[in-house]
Structures are given as C-alpha cells and as structure tokens.
Write a structure and sequence with these properties.
Layout: H1 18-28, H2 43-51, E1 54-67, E2 79-80, H3 82-105, E3 110-119, E4 127-139, E5 153-154, H4 159-167, E6 170-183, H5 189-196, H6 204-227, E7 232-241, E8 249-261
Parallel strand pairs: 3-5
Antiparallel strand pairs: 1-4, 2-6, 3-4, 6-8, 7-8
Helix pairs in contact: 2-4
C-alpha cells in the first residue's frame, strides 16, 4: 500500500503573514500589554479545558490554496487517482503546518478542537482552499505535552472529550489522516440491464471499489499513527466527498486523534445523569 509523500514544511511554504504574527505576539502580552486569548471553544468546552489544567492561549489558523491537477482515468476501471490523492494530502499538511507554526508563536503545548475544511472560490475553477482552525492551549503546571518532534500536539476532540481523555490516563499526540481519491468504474447500459433487470443482486464492481478506497484511506491513517508511536486512535471519522470532480471520482478521507497512555491505571469516571433546565421550546 503506497503511502503519500508528506511535503517538506520549509519547501515552498511561505511564512505565516506578518499581520498574523503581530496579532499573536500581542496576544502573548508583555512590556505593559495584558495577555489576551481568543478561542472558538464553547463556554462549556472552555471551562472543561481549564479544569483539565490547560489555558487557551489563542485561536490559530492555517491555510493553503492549492491547484488540483488533472488525472485521466479509464471510465470502466476501478482505480486510485494517485495525483489527486497526493494533492489533497499535501494541501492539508501545509495548512496544518501553518496552524502549528501559529501555535508555536503563542508558546502553546497543543491545539484542541481542530477543524479541517475544504472550500472553493468562483474565481478559481481548479483551486481549493484547505483551512485548519483550532484553539491553542498551554499546560498550567509547566509540563510539556508536545510531540517527540517538539511540535504542538493536535487533536480534533471537543473540550469535553479532551478533559475526559486526560482524566482517564491518556493524552492526545497528533491528528492522523489518510486520503484516497478513487475512480469508481462505470458500466455500460447493456451490462447494467443484464445484471439488474428483474432481480435483486449485489453490484460487485461498485462494492469492491468503495471497499478498496476506504481501506486505503484507513490503512494510511493507521500507518501515520504507528509511525509516531501512538497507542491508538480515537474519534475516527471517514468523510466522503467529490469536491466538484466527476460524480464517479470520490475522496475517502479518514481522520482521528492518535493517543498515548500516561499511566497504566485508567480510572473511568462513573456516568452521572444530568437534567437540563433549558426551555425545550
């Protein structure tokens, strides 16, 4: 199973904008300036992150507008489109790297609640913006929670899940992902009628294509987690989207938060019933 190549972060990657760096430095405070944090956490998430021993220090953003090339595919063949897979992988990695650079500027230990989105603009038919957004946090006890490569940890867990994970004896290590852009082969009208008219039957060609594509994405995500020494992955999601391509071209994108254990005794809090006092109307 070929693994997409990660882009070199110092190659063809412009630094974060000067305005962003100035904003982040002002948020750190000093020289008579009071520190100020920003966050996209909800109030409940904010308070639970604080209870877990971390202080939000700022919302961080990374962006990459990427030109996605063209790749020919045999209309009747199931096959991965490696050029498109690599483009989707590279663009997300560039956005993530810039988000992590902003977190470094804030002196953060990690980033929680990371969201990865893909958007398009009318003025660029083959262009897509990949954007990574999250809230940078710093441990209050001074203990480093950074990765073995001395980068901020990244996690798409909510504030509630982040706090629960820490309390149970695990900590997030890094967002891990796997991508596979796949062409699902078409069938001729004659083949379709011969197989389907008057009978219930599995469409084995389509089943196999979708199955193969998901497995490639899942396997690549798993390989990333193994490569950084994770104990497991939580919150895994598989997202399927065509991103404006032909209807038979689909990206299967697997993403989750890799974790490592911090202690052997994992004490799980007993669930408690909570009654809301909010007006249901």
């Amino acid at each position: 199973m070929p693994q997409p190549n990660k882009p070199q972060q110092n190659q063809n990657m412009p630094a974060i904008p000067a305005d962003a760096k100035n904003r982040l430095l002002r948020m750190r405070g000093g020289q008579g300036v009071k520190p100020l944090f920003t966050s996209d956490l909800s109030v409940n998430e904010f308070l639970l992150v604080k209870e877990a021993g971390f202080d939000p220090v700022g919302m961080v953003v990374g962006s990459s507008i990427y030109h996605i090339g063209f790749q020919y595919a045999n209309m009747t063949q199931n096959q991965e489109l490696g050029v498109l897979t690599q483009a989707m992988y590279n663009a997300r990695e560039l956005a993530m790297a810039r988000m992590e650079e902003e977190a470094d500027t804030l002196g953060a230990d990690g980033i929680v609640g990371v969201r990865l989105d893909v958007g398009r603009y009318e003025w660029g038919e083959n262009l897509a913006e990949f954007i990574a957004i999250g809230t940078a946090v710093r441990s209050r006890d001074g203990t480093s929670h950074r990765t073995p490569l001395n980068k901020p940890f990244t996690s798409d867990l909510s504030g509630q899940d982040f706090r629960t994970l820490l309390a149970a004896g695990y900590r997030p290590l890094s967002l891990v992902m796997g991508s596979c852009v796949y062409h699902v082969g078409t069938q001729s009208l004659g083949q379709w009628f011969r197989q389907t008219v008057g009978q219930n039957i599995e469409m084995a060609n389509y089943t196999q294509a979708i199955y193969d594509a998901r497995e490639l994405a899942m396997g690549r995500m798993q390989a990333e987690a193994e490569g950084i020494g994770a104990d497991g992955i939580v919150g895994t999601r598989i997202v399927e989207a065509s991103h404006g391509w032909d209807t038979h071209v689909i990206e299967f994108f697997a993403i989750g938060t890799s974790v490592v254990q911090t202690r052997a005794d994992h004490q799980i809090a007993t669930p408690q019933m909570v009654l809301t006092l909010n007006d249901p109307s």
